[in-house]
Specification:
mainly alpha
Amino acid sequence: MPITTAAQFTDVYRAHYEDVLRFVRRRAHPMNVDDIVGETFLAAWRRRRELPDDPRPWLFGTARKVMLNDSRGMRRHTALAVRVQQAVETGGSTRAADPATLVGGRMDLAAAWQALTPADQEVLALQAWEQLSAKDAAKVLGCTRAAYAMRLTRAKRRLAARLGTTDATTPALATTF
């Protein structure tokens, strides 16, 4: 059922929005529901000429893929937290610390990471995870290089404070970030 007009798409949206919303609500974190449903219908709009006659299963499948992508993103954030913690515990070396110490430390870092604002997480991740230069990270955030550097410094300090260290420029944090 190729959709060629906005009115036709509006009809599909109205007919299936509630079903997709219920589908996502049963499976996703409440904070993410609106974004997932929005991305699902955005994908439907982009592929409107290719939608099947009954778009409901297609919409559910697309919503499922969006949720999986969201889940992968969360796992990447967790993996970053683990990498940061390992660097903190090993002083930036590649040698692993005692496994029992690592487990406790990972839990501490995960809690500290979750306690940071999304803005702080993003600033830290751009450098530590994406390994962007200050110039490139500033472009991503739409700010000056100096503003990015200030945000990064403050985010490091807040993370260090949550981890219970006294200085964000300790060797472990400095090599991590």
